[in-house]
Amino acid sequence: MIKKYALVIFFALAYVFTWSNWLPQALNSRGVTSIQVPGFLTLLAGYGPALAAIIVASLAHGRQGLRELFGRLFRWQVGIQWYLIALFLPVLITLLAITLNNLTGGATPDFSVAGFPFGPAETPLWQKILILLLVFTLGFDGLGEELGWRGFALPKLLERYSPLVSSLILGALWAVWHFPYALSEGSFLSVVPLHWFFINLLAVSIIYTWIFINTNGSLLLALLFHAAGNVTSNLLPILPPAASDLRIYYFTIAINCAIALGTLFLSMRKLEVQKQAV
Questions:
Q1: Cβ within 8 Å of residue 76, ≥6 positions away
Q2: In the chain, what percentage of residues exceed pLDDT 70?
Q3: pLDDT: is 224 or 132 the higher one?
Q4: Which tens digit of pLDDT belongs to each residue from 181-229?
Q5: Which pTM was predicted?
């Protein structure tokens, strides 16, 4: 039964683990409740997808399942171009969105509000980048999510569906997983319309799948891509403190959609063949 419904159980556990903390936070932030959430739930929530993947892989496939899951972290022998794509595509997308915004009469973002939550503000830029990349790779946003999404769920989906369908299913469930956090007042996503956030993650999910299949199912490259995106959003913030000007964010969505469509037209047939190897 666990093998048959492994994906369903995985997503259910990922939601339960994470929402056990995020839902009370969202309700508390809006004054609906005043629930006191135990501190350990923060850790459980952050690593919810990863913990769900470990539990389901262990129960469904035993040690072999865990070896396969964690083995993807060490698939590092891929072409250098994929490291360049994973590490630099997010910043290129953001810079292009900022450029398009400026060319069309938008206001230049205030980079002085760039967030660096670790160490003194005067830390050299290269050190900030390395520290943030390490934190986001091993923390909630990297290992905590990607061990589940791309380490466990995506390979399972690719066993049943095409790369496109797999990407859309995972992207939709990944987006909905974020909704309680997005509904929390003061959160990073609280100023973003949920439908645009949903569309953006569908597009980004296709890009992840394109990278994942072309790197022989490397979870390491997915981690680096996710971490690079978070580093970029901290050092090149595109979201204002209020939903007054989301132009750069909308340009980012448009660029992500264009890249996703490009991968569909140029390589989805090739990916359909290649997916057998991941």
A1: 218, 220
A2: 90
A3: 224
A4: 998 888 878 888 999 999 999 999 999 999 999 999 999 999 999 999 9
A5: 0.91
